[in-house]
Specification:
Pfam families: Alpha-amylase, SusG_C. About 30% of the residues lie in helices and about 20% in strands. The protein contains 18 helices and 23 strands. The structure holds alpha-D-glucopyranose and calcium ion.
Length: about 575
Amino acid sequence: MYYRRYNKEVNVLGKRWWDKSVIYQVYPKSFYDSNNDGIGDIRGIIEKLDYLKDLGIDIIWLSPVYKSPMDDNGYDISDYYDIDKQFGSMEDMDSLIEEGNKRGIKIMMDLVINHTSDENAWFIESKSSIDNPKRNFYIWKDPKPDGSAPNNWRSIFGGSAWEYDENTKQYYLHVFSKKQPDLNWENEQVRKELYKMVNYWLDKGLGGFRVDAITYIKKDNTFKSLEADDNEGLAHINAGSLNQEGIENFLAELKENTFSKYDIVTVAEAPGIPREQLKKYSGPEGFFDLLFEFGHSDLDVAEDGKWYTPKEWTLQEFKDALFKSQEVYNDLGFGALFLENHDQPRSLNKLIKEEDIGLSSAKMLATIYFLLKGIPFVYQGEEIGMTNVKYDSIEEYNDISSIDQYNSAIRDGLSKEEALTSVHNRSRDNARIPMQWDDSKNAGFTKGKPWLKANNNYKEVNVKNNLEAEDSILNYYKKLIDLRKNSEYSDVIVYGKYKGFMENDKNIFAYIREYEDKKLLILANFYSQNIKLKLNYTVEKVLLSNYGSFDISNGEIFLKPYEALVLAVL
Ligand code: GLC
Ligand code: CA
């Protein structure tokens, strides 16, 4: 067995191989279809590695490609040791790792260990009888005396979190869909099996893992009902299964038996961790290297989680969500910086008024998150300014949460149009539509029939056009990446402290980064009006600007709509 052991020598300066990295998320089903069956695949990713190399990224976070019945597009794994046929084979996966290595690109796989698919061999055995040795691999409970579910927890994709099994007359728990039964982490055997599997993959030489829904692994073991929050008498499952006391023991054990033995980077999907606890969860001493926090990305979702419930938000809230954790990361090292992923609508639609979506606003958004303290993530298509899709009917959607949200809106009395509008705004399919490569049919994603229809705007918004136009969003991303990795300001961008600047301004998004004798000011106009402001700093150099020209004189800066500047200041 080959272990790339964690090398303390390398770490004397607190520096690691991935410090300067930029991570690019690939949603394999939608990235590139190499055999024209309408579904993106691993060979397709290999074909596009040179594109990613040219963009300048270092690590690919690959959403799940394991064997799966695809109830939740691969986040329901039926065999951890196999690749799903629609994506390719284990040989393809090995060659992706190898071809990546040749280009200096590491692969970070998705690790889904809160639950499996109900078609996983473990679950099939577990379900077969009450005394099967694998029965306790999952969470089974007797019905209440009246036959109903053990408690009133509602799953994240809607409906009761319990599913009844006729055969053995018990219910099993599923935080997500009923085809995603939760593993029983209290069972030591389960944990051992999972660690073995994690190490199997790490031995292949991965760059790391993105760890799915990990803050759900510990349940409130009293399994008591919660106060209902809807008219069906159900209550959101978070209070019974998110960040429960004792989860630290599981996470520490996971790290000790797997991640800590390898020189890798881990990033955890970890909603709901109180700021005071971030230190325990992330950084060199934490359970993971990086954490995805969602405060800034879910600002447009109301408390009840229903997409049709209107929710206003302000720039101030957006800034506060991002900046508060930046202060924590000043001590911890790095945050995970992102605006988009496969669960979110496109950032341009979420953050910018529809009529203002364009080159300047897209580059402005890129600038403001990319230079915060942390490791930047780019989601496929974000680098060319892809936007949300508006399908005409719910039948055209694939995402299970969209379908659940639509049905619940209809149940609550909304019209079809209203229900559909909420799906347009929030569907996870907004991020899952085919990657737009060129202006040929299906955006050049496939010559077959794509599993999701391409966005109508692909003739303008595509990689080919972006590569050709000098002032494109893609070329701007390249400049940002270059500034981070290869410029004389690299250290300040990677290691510098975050410092607030005009934090309470209603129109401006700005901050300072500071390291040794260098100081950067990242300054952006978040809206469409012109702004004039006076600076207390001397501008030494303009490192990046999202317009061709800028207007700075005698300590005064004039900002055009959505203008963003990266300034070296004294
Ligand atoms: C995470 C994934 C999401 C998935 C869920 C269940 O939130 O990002 O896509 O549906 O976990 O695995
Ligand atoms: Ca294919």
